[in-house]
Amino acid sequence: MENTFDAVIIGAGACGLMCAVQAGYLGKKILILEKNEKIGAKILISGGGRCNYTNLYSEESNFISENPHFCKSAFSQYSVDDTISFFKTYGINGQEKTLGQLFPSTNNAKDIVRVFESLCTDFGHKILTNSEVKELVKLDSGMFKITFAFANKLKDVTVSSVVIASGGLPIPKMGATDFGLKVAKQFGLKITETAPALVPLTITGKDAEWYAKLSGNSIFCRVSNDKISFEENILFTHWGLSGPAILQISSYWKPGEQIRIDLLPNDNIIEIIQSQKMINGRKTLLGLLSDIFTRKFAEALDKYLPVEKNLASLNKEDFLLIDQLIHKFDVKPAGDKGYDKAEVMRGGVATDELSSKTLESKKVPGLYFGGECVDVTGWLGGYNFQWAWSSGFVIAQNI
Ligand SMILES: Cc1cc2nc3c(=O)[nH]c(=O)nc-3n(C[C@H](O)[C@H](O)[C@H](O)COP(=O)(O)OP(=O)(O)OC[C@H]3O[C@@H](n4cnc5c(N)ncnc54)[C@H](O)[C@@H]3O)c2cc1C
User: Fold this and answer.
1) Closest by alpha carbon to 251, among 6, 64, 62, 57?
2) Domain CATH code at residue 100
3) Binning pLDDT at 50, 70 and 90, where does residue 18 land?
4) Ligand 1 atom nearest to 17, measured from its CA
5) Residue among 342, 366, 343 at smallest CA distance from 355
6) Confidence at residue 2, expressed as pLDDT on a 0 to 100 scale
């Protein structure tokens, strides 16, 4: 393939597309190679098809990385405000849903992908879909030879700058590959241990049936471990626990560890019982718990609490038990639902291998890594796209 490109971007996801567009503003010509039939597959399914494309309160503490300061430079070069005004320029106004999460007011992720599609056309970039990159070799000349499969044939392109924007391991059936990690290893770059993140947690053994029976029940909780805590809903499922608070803590959880759930984070259950007891001591604990939680959940608590007792007859031991269960419900998940259900990958190309200012490999000039394949993992709520946009922007300035 004749080389008329300033850079080749591998992966037409959030990072690759933003990188191509930003390079276009600077007059650079780009070839994007994408394994899938269509571009922006994950953007299209994100946020339930609505795409939570950034978060108004995004700051570095919302990102997990071996070097928590690494993402600072990218965010200072391309901020949440830059993201908002970029999309606004092309007719997408943001609508905040909850906790700073911004969605297109049309509620349609397709609008986001359309912006990139039309800008790439305007800039004259070439996007080859159904093109899986198989190999990347650095030639003695300092150029890179990229070999990709297209229409059952292997093709080559030679270029001076390569952007690895091939994403992480979640959802292999949507095109996810370990290409970024493989390239990093091939060039001798360190990888920070990877794991599914923003992922539901499983419960097995004697408690599994109890969780399964509660499937569909959602409760506002504080979920915590020794590193962090989140106040959002948890959702009981047939296999264990999901919901935003669980997805968030999963990024800070490792197999074998316990999480603590406060089922009533903004109240004190003992104080509630004491005050209710004054009004109606004959009320059962079940009745009171049903006022606070769903009836089904309150009934299920009979596995742990004397729910049939009336409030006046609860003794000191009962109070201790109730306080422990409602405010310190400890759970030891068996595992997680893996990359099929994870929203992101934790870990990735180690940040100390890359310049935080340019995202170029320190060891391999001309090789750039951005988006999810880098060891920068955002919370749930639009943070991961913000990293993808910011890292794509930064790379575009330097290729
Ligand atoms: C169900 C779901 C919902 C999500 N919702 C949100 C949300 O609302 N907000 C948010 O901030 N984040 C969300 N995320 C996370 C977000 O989608 C990712 O963090 C983001 O897409 C990462 O962007 P990326 O460009 O690095 O990778 P990707 O978007 O994954 O793009 C990588 C691209 O590279 C291609 N590719 C891989 N290997 C090769 C190869 N060898 N050759 C050619 N092409 C290759 C892939 O096909 C893919 O198109 C969600 C994730 C999932 C799974």
Assistant:
1) 64
2) 3.50.50.60
3) very high
4) 25
5) 366
6) 60
The residues facing 223 across adjacent strands are 230, 261
Taking a C-beta distance cutoff of 8 angstroms, is the pair 106, 90 a contact? no
- Among 306, 368, 349, 393, CA closest to 168: 349
| 1: in domain | no
Q: Is the CB of 16 under 6 A from ligand 1?
A: yes
Is 118 inside a domain boundary? yes
Q: Which atom of ligand 1 is nearest to the CA of 39?
A: 49
Contact 218, 235 (CB under 8 A): yes
Q: Distance between CA atoms of 333 and 328, rounded to whole angstroms?
A: 15
**Does residue 1 surpass a pLDDT of 80?**
no
CB-ligand 1 contact for 169 (6 Å cutoff): no
Total number of domains constituting the chain: 2
Domain residues for 305?
200-337
CA of 392 to the centre of ligand 1 (A): 13
Q: What is the pLDDT of residues 195-236, one digit of tens each?
A: 999 999 999 999 999 999 999 999 999 999 999 999 999 999
User: Does residue 110 have a pLDDT over 70?
Assistant: yes
Please name which of 326, 254, 235 lies closest in space to residue 289, comparing C-alpha atoms. Answer: 326
**pTM of the predicted model, to two decimals?**
0.96
Please give the Cα distance from 19 to 5 (Å, whole number).
14
**What pairing do the DSSP bridges indicate for beta strands 367-369 and 162-164?**
parallel
Q: How far apart are CA 157 and CA 162, in angstroms?
A: 11
Say yes or no: 220 and 185 in one domain: no
Has residue 299 been placed in a domain? yes
Q: How far apart are CA 325 and CA 319, in angstroms?
A: 10
Residue type, 21: V
Give me Rg for the CA atoms of the chain: 25
Check pocket membership of 337 for ligand 1, CB cut-off 6 A: no
Instruction: Dihedral sign for Cα 16, 43, 383, 330, please.
Output: negative
- Mean pLDDT estimate for the chain: 97
The three-point CA angle 51-52-57 to 5° equals 165
CATH number of 317's domain: 2.40.30.10
End-to-end Cα separation, the chain, in angstroms: 20
